[in-house]
Amino acid sequence: DTDRSRGLGDVYKRQTEMNEMLAAKIKEGQNSVVRDKYFTFTCEADNIDDATSILSRFETQFISLFKTLGVDDMTALSGEDRVNLLRSITRPDDRGHISLSDIAHSGWSSRSFVAPTSIDFSVARNRFDFGNKHGQVLYFGNLPADLTDELLTVLSDLPINMVITLHIRNVNQVKALSMVDTKICLLYTSDAADEA
Staple partner for 51: which of 45, 129, 143, 152, CB 3.0–4.6 Å? Predict the structure, then answer.
């Protein structure tokens, strides 16, 4: 009986050491967690046919671009996949796969399956809770046009679950050149004022 309890004590000791080591690695961000990255892009179009054509071109260009960067396993998600992905983020405790036929037969929209059952904004001024998850939204306005992808790299390397949304709007080339000229003029004016 003493040998058995000594053996169980050794097992417990090893389990404790392993748990402490794993906890330390998780704190360091070295937890061998696979991070999936999803890109959603939209377009403005006069009708669904034009939108389908534009989005198809975007998809082809996007996948081609990432293949040149060495990403070979990029695929477009179906509507059903997107609903289940969003649901896994906003309703993480709900298990089970939702099919488009489930949505069609329910008479509800896909939003009803994706939206959290409740969101509590009373927790703190800058935080919210949904289910047993806690969230925070940070907004960065007026990002510089020359922003590199380093920001995305730094953010995606953080050891937390997060959704990063970038809303990027193309600017007409003539308008963009005019904006650049205006900024250059403002810089020259500022420099001249500083020298005076």
Answer: 45
One-letter amino acid for residue 43 of the chain: C
Flag whether the pTM goes above 0.85: no
| Cβ proximity of 155 and 165 under 8 Å | no
Task: Measure the N-to-C terminal CA separation of the chain; round to a whole number of Å.
Answer: 92
- With tokens 């289910």, the residue in question is 131
Q: What DSSP element (H or E) covers 120?
A: strand 120-124
pLDDT digit string (tens) for the chain, length 196 residues: 555 555 556 666 777 777 677 667 666 655 565 667 788 888 888 999 999 999 999 888 888 888 887 888 888 888 899 899 888 888 877 878 889 898 999 989 888 888 888 888 887 788 888 877 888 888 777 766 666 677 777 777 777 777 777 766 676 778 878 887 888 888 788 777 777 6
Contact of 119 with 132, CB cutoff 8 Å:
no
Give 83: exposed, middle or buried? Use CB within 10 Å, 0-12, 13-18, 19+: buried
